[in-house]
Amino acid sequence: MTTPRRSNHTSNRDDGDRVELTHRLLKEAAAAPDDEERRRLQDEVIVLNTGLAESIARRYAKRSEEQSDVTQVAYVGLVNAVRRFAPDRGIDFISFAMPTITGEIKRFFRDQGWTVRPPRRIQDLHRQITAATSHLSQTLGRSPSPEELADHLGEEVADVNEALSCRSCYTPVSIDAPTRTEEGTSLSDLLGADDGNFDRSEATTALQPLCRELPERDKRILYLRFFHGWTQQEIAQELGVTQMQVSRLLARILGHLRTRLGSLEAGDGHVKGRREASGSQPAARRRRAA
Fold first, then answer.
1. Is 19 helix (H, G, I), strand (E, B) or coil?
2. Per its UniProt record, what NCBIfam families does this chain match (predicted)?
3. Pick from 48, 51, 43, 95: which is nearest to 71 by CA?
């Protein structure tokens, strides 16, 4: 929808004249003999009140959406207000049009304004918090705490904190955005990565007691191979055997450790299963006894 074009005879009227003329045109539209005449009079009212739609749209200027888009949505709300207004209900047009236009803008933000869309419950609570924050700030003389907002709205503090944290969903920061550091690194450069040493530490912890059970020569071979980084040929010279024998010894030792480690893991699961079963049986017997 494009910006409605103001006619020359209405663009310079003051607010009093505009309200009076709006009221008269709407009454004439309600009494119009045909749809064409009614639509023409309603279009006059729309052009006459574009300033109202623009002033409401400006209240949302700090949102992430383009202001021109918000203004277009406000125009849609104005058109809907004019089309639906009934002069015989005793309500003045401005009082009817303002919530209609505001509701249209809020629906736009609800449906289109979230780059990352949180649950509807959190969206609704976020809007309530925005209104409550303005009210409490005037009452308290400072920004309210999450606890005060929760008490005012009758909500859980955890839900209020979740709704407050979703403010960034309107305009989430890209991980490629530069940070405020001297190096000018991006956020992606500061993100952590999987540390392979975790798996290494876990394996070392599990293998330590098994390695202590090995014969001294087997311990010596593992120590020279994996802690000193010796080659099989260097170990063979140290022990007075051939390189082929060292290869077979390493294969045997590693195979033994792998088997022992697998049996221990299977045993832990077996024991855990037995414990769970034994813990559930007495309760089952008690239920049957009851």
1. helix
2. SigBFG (TIGR02980), sigma70-ECF (TIGR02937)
3. 51
Spatial distance between the Cα atoms of 209 and 199, rounded to a whole number of angstroms: 17
Pairwise CA distance, residues 57 & 76, whole Å:
11
More confident residue, 107 or 93: 93
Residues 6+ apart with CB under 8 A from 175: 186, 187, 188, 191
Question: Which one-letter amino acid corresponds to residue 163?
Answer: A
CA distance between the termini of the chain: 73
pLDDT in tens, 8-45: 444 444 677 888 899 899 999 988 889 999 999 999 99
- CB under 8 Å to 216, separation ≥6 — which residues? none
Res. 141 pLDDT band, cuts 50 70 90: confident
CB distance 85 to 96 below 8 Å? yes
- The CATH number linked to 70 is 1.20.120.1810
CA distance 49 to 284: 75
Packed helices 15-30 and 93-112: angle between N→C axes, nearest 10 degrees: 90
* Residue 186: strand pairing partners: 178
Residue 91 contacts residue 26 (beta carbons within 8 Å): no
Q: 236 has which bridge partners?
A: none
150 & 208 share domain: no
Could you give the count of Cα atoms lying within 13 Å of 179 in the half-sphere of its Cβ? 11
Classify 2 as helix, strand or coil: coil
Please indicate, yes or no, if residue 179 is contained in any of the structural domains: no
| Widest pairwise Cα distance in the chain | 116
Contact 82, 42 (CB under 8 A): yes
pTM strictly above 0.70: no
What is the extent of the structural domain holding 142?
116-170
